[in-house]
């Protein structure tokens, strides 16, 4: 159990001029307001932060819990809130996006131009028959067009489903199929780290796998100009589709509960879940957290390094900052190209004032900086920075300290933001002007978020004692359902024994003195590798689908210095257990197989072969034991039920 290290290092809240939430007492006041009148608190903010076409008359509707609704009779348009209203209020010339391509080329686009481009694409989508409520899959690289594609869907009330460009044809096909998408928007290729990687070819492959008959059009953004396959009945160039379209497009005014997007994420069992978000409640929290957590102000230059294929890119690139009329950096490339100083150089060049990234990136850049002085952040002018953020996985105190000292010059608060695809936006996070910081802790719940730690029966556990992280009250940006599977939504997030609380799937502990939260990791079979969420079952299914080779497979995570967790697979082959070169060859083959089935991010780092897997008498794989083996620990569990204890020795050997 974690000891109380809060005493050793509590960093006072930053003294920020005119911070949105300026002090601990201001934070406490907001928390008290929300506690006294949850509905009134959120309704007030929804009126303040969003422009409604028709005002709502009711905040929360819990009559069909856990299918909660917020602001249901209000109507609005998300893209109107992100674009038009800023142009109408005289901010048309303000830079919205500073796009930096992989090769360093910079393109700026102001709010007026971004609105026009969004309208042209929105009109083009309509011209191809896309209607309100239709699903559009976006399989794009980081680009202005990627943001425009999402905004254009929102404008016409189409529900987008962005699929990360690193997913394989099979994964893409599964998502297109599950969402029954009518259109795919993609690029010819993506360019990352100096390499050109296919996108359109993967779309072709996905559709050829079958089950994507709903797709009638594929729009292709020309990024690299590479030669690509073309199906004249289905494929269209994005620029040709847009060129003759009018630069205005009346927004589709939708009800607040209208599904803005479905984003697939991994669960502990079965196939990825399509997390469905609403329009009004989601946008409210995207805008609100962008403002309070980052203290985002009109003169800031905001940079979230996430990809639009993940929820962080949705909320803190496409929606939150734009809803506030902010200026933000969008980056096509990778942090290590042309060298590991890329992030620092971009902060310097664009005078970035708020920087939001993942612990994995920080850890790998620490390694790089320690072995090569020329890419150390101290070689760059980072004086524009005022706030740093972290997201996606726990940030270990050593990485926190380095980030604080070397990137933030010891003066920038770090907001360690805990949240999930399902939560839509930040749940537990410091507010920079209000919350004293403790390295490694995401500190306190965002005002209005009723986060708590309970035992298996839903009862509160005292501070200092670990338990299950839950949220006791509904909040506006929460997941509405799993696309096409309401039963799975209920059983995954609102299990009967937890008294109707939202189950996050993470363990947590509150510090005995400060009440600060520390996330202790997933309590289900979900892994977090480089901040990417992956289900062990998904990887196991991918491995056993290699029927020519694999008889059985079990996947667990083990701690990794750089990626947080690493994937370790235990495999029983159909043939004899291989060793030496043969084992290495088969391990490589299996890694490539998983990359083809899911995507390169799911490749196991470690593959180990055994004659069988350790199981209980009832035939359940002993995962806890495998976790110990993966870590290289001596096994302390009872192994008396193991049929073949020698298998543990086999499985301890890496290939
Ligand atoms: O385990 C938690 C971890 O990431 C999970 C959510 O993953 P995903 O839905 O992909 O969203 C990632 C971006 C929000 C959580 O269940 N996680 C996320 N942020 C943190 C974290 N763990 C510790 N500290 C965080 N700040």
Automatic annotation (TrEMBL):
Mg(2+) binds at residues 544, 550. InterPro entries: Ac_CoA_lig, ACAS_N, AMP-bd_C, AMP-bd_C_sf, AMP-binding_CS, AMP-dep_synth/lig_dom, ANL_N_sf. CoA binds at residues 192-195, 312, 530. Keywords: Acetylation, ATP-binding, Ligase, Magnesium, Metal-binding, Nucleotide-binding. Its cofactor is Mg(2+). Acetylated. Deacetylation by the SIR2-homolog deacetylase activates the enzyme. ATP binds at residues 392-394, 416-421, 506, 522, 533. Residues 27-82 form the Acetyl-coenzyme A synthetase N-terminal domain. GO terms for molecular function: acetate-CoA ligase activity. The keyword Hydrolase does not apply. The modification N6-acetyllysine is found at residue 620. Gene3D superfamilies: 3.30.300.30, N-terminal domain of ligase-like. Residues 538-620 form the AMP-binding enzyme C-terminal domain. It holds the Pfam family AMP-binding_C. Its EC number is 6.2.1.1. It is an enzyme of class 6 (ligase). The keyword Hydrolase does not apply. Residues 91-475 form the AMP-dependent synthetase/ligase domain. HAMAP family: Ac_CoA_synth. Belongs to the ATP-dependent AMP-binding enzyme family. This is Acetyl-coenzyme A synthetase. It comes from Variovorax ginsengisoli.
